[in-house]
Structure formats: structure tokens, C-alpha cells
Specification:
Layout lengths: L10 E2 L2 E2 L15 H5 L1 H5 L13 H30 L3 H25 L4 H5 L14 H9 L15 H12 L3 H11 L6 H4 L14 H9 L5 H32 L11 H7 L6 H9 L3
Antiparallel strand pairs: 1-2
Helix pairs in contact: 3-4, 3-6, 3-8, 4-11, 6-7, 10-13, 11-12
Length: 292
């Protein structure tokens, strides 16, 4: 007798039987498609090339899924800021951990777009006009929440009141780093007053007086575990962000070479300069100060 003889596996002729308990009537029930509003979501991909180019759908889906992930990143970072303000470090770190996983997904997505060859993209690039990822207000808001602020960027969104409001709010609120430093101050760490009182609408710039504070945290991790762990989580965030920027740059170089961007930028050279931007410079500078 075989091990499976007499046992009803629910599969016959390579077909799985639907269990009697499975709900199939959704005439008056919430369905999967209804909950997710799939008719709206799946009708939002509207290629405009004529005749429609096969690869334009890839280009649209790539950028739309990126925007969905950015929406969740903003949601998590804003929650992390709120938790830090409330001195609730553990749930803030949970939010940051989720963002790190999303960042990995966003970085891996570039490999999908990289399957688009230069000749394929050239056949529909013209229909984009001046549309460019540079105009992503969610991406800009994420940069601002992480501290890389630039008020001049607001003018890009002057024609979109709702987008402008989101970016402006991110500009005017303390960044994730600001909130972390304020939490450290409340816990007795010697954060300089000028850091706590700074104009939060300005981009964060390197503050040398913070390096000794972090050096002491790193010198005694057991006594400063919560602060130490958070520092490393922030370093992960920046590392991941820079990897995303780098993959963006290399994908652009692979597809359009040194052509200018659709939004008017210099293209790859403009993206390359973004790699010089930083969020938490003291957390990298402190590594030079650690003996050994």
C-alpha cells in the first residue's frame, strides 16, 4: 500500500477541488477586488504612445509601483517621527525597520526597468514630454523627512496645490534626525542647544559638536544600547537610500547614456551629484573616531 493510498488529497487530474467552505458568492459581500479597488488601480495604466508601444506599460507600472511604495515609506517615516516625539523609541524603530525592507524592494525594482533597451525606450520616450521622476512630490517629501531639505524645490509643485502642501509640510516639520536628536537631549545626552533650536526648514549640514556625543555612545554601546541601536538603524536608512540613488543612476546610464533628462536636467551627471548628498553625516564621521 502506498503512503497516499486511501487519503483524499483534494487533487484529481492535476486539478485542485474547491473546498465547500470557500466563499464564491460576492453579490452582497466584500471581495478582494472591491477592498483593493482593483478596477480603479488596474485602469490607471494608460499608455499614450500611438501606436501603443509594448514597453510603455512596463515604464508606467515601474513608476506607479514606486509611488505606491513611497506612499508607504512616508506613512512609516511620519509615524516614526511621531513616536520619537512621544519618547516611544521601540515602535519608531519598528517603522524604520519596515522602511528598510521597502527600500530593498525599491532598489531591486531598477533591475526590471533595466530590461528596457535604449532602442525600445527611444520609440516612446517622446510622448513623456517634460514628465520626469524629478517631479515626484512623494520622493521629495521623503528626502525632506530624512533631512535633505531644499525650499527651492517647492517651485516644481506650484501648479499642483495638493502636492505642494505635502512637500511644504515635510519642509517645515522637524526631520527624523531632528526628532532623534531631541529625544537624545530629553534623555540627558549633551546635544548642543544650537542643534535643538536650528531652523528645520534648512538642509541638515555637518555639526562637528555632535561627533563626540556619538563617539561616547559607540564607545559604550551596552550602557547606551537604545541610542546605539537607533544610530545604526539610521545608518542603514542612508546606506539603502544611497544604493537606490546609485541604481537609479546606473539604470539611466544604461538606457539613455548621457542624454539630458525629460524634465530638463543634465540627466546622469545630475543624478551623480545626488550621491554627494547626506542625511546623517555625523553617524559616518564618528567611525573615524572609534579607536582600534
Amino acid at each position: 500500500m502506498s503512503a497516499h493510498e486511501g487519503v483524499d488529497s483534494g487533487v484529481e487530474a492535476n486539478t485542485r477541488r474547491i473546498e465547500s467552505s470557500v466563499v464564491t458568492d460576492f453579490s452582497d459581500r466584500m471581495s478582494y477586488g472591491g477592498y483593493l479597488d482593483l478596477p480603479t488601480l488596474l485602469s490607471a495604466q494608460r499608455p499614450i504612445s500611438r501606436p501603443e508601444h509594448h514597453d510603455e506599460l512596463l515604464f508606467i507600472v515601474q513608476h506607479q509601483t514606486t509611488e505606491l511604495w513611497l506612499k508607504l515609506v512616508l506613512h512609516e517615516l511620519e509615524a516614526a517621527c511621531a513616536f520619537l516625539r512621544a519618547d516611544e523609541l521601540a515602535p519608531a524603530l519598528k517603522c524604520i525597520a519596515r522602511v528598510k525592507h521597502i527600500q530593498k524592494t525599491l532598489t531591486e525594482q531598477w533591475s526590471v526597468l533595466a530590461t528596457l533597451t535604449p532602442s525600445e525606450y527611444a520609440q516612446f520616450r517622446g510622448v513623456l514630454g517634460n514628465a520626469s521622476g524629478f517631479q515626484s512630490y512623494q520622493y521629495r517629501a521623503v528626502e525632506f523627512v530624512l533631512g535633505n531639505k531644499n525650499a527651492k524645490m517647492l517651485q516644481v509643485f506650484d501648479s499642483d496645490a495638493s502636492a505642494l502642501a505635502i512637500v511644504r509640510e515635510a519642509l517645515e516639520r522637524p526631520s527624523l534626525y531632528d526628532e532623534f536628536l531631541r529625544l537624545l537631549a530629553r534623555r540627558g545626552y549633551p546635544i548642543p542647544a544650537k542643534v535643538l533650536e536650528r531652523d528645520v526648514t534648512l538642509a541638515w549640514t555637518f555639526e562637528p559638536e555632535l561627533v563626540p556625543v556619538f563617539a561616547d555612545i559607540y564607545a559604550h554601546p551596552d550602557a547606551n544600547w537604545a541610542a546605539y541601536e537607533t544610530c545604526e538603524e539610521l545608518v542603514d536608512l542612508e546606506d539603502n537610500f544611497q544604493l537606490w540613488r546609485f541604481r537609479h543612476l546606473k539604470t539611466v546610464e544604461r538606457i539613455i547614456g548621457s542624454k539630458t533628462g525629460t524634465g530638463g536636467s543634465s540627466g546622469a551627471p545630475f543624478l551623480k551629484r545626488a550621491l554627494e548628498l547626506t542625511f546623517f553625516p555625523e553617524l559616518f564621521a564618528v567611525r573615524t573616531e572609534i579607536p582600534g
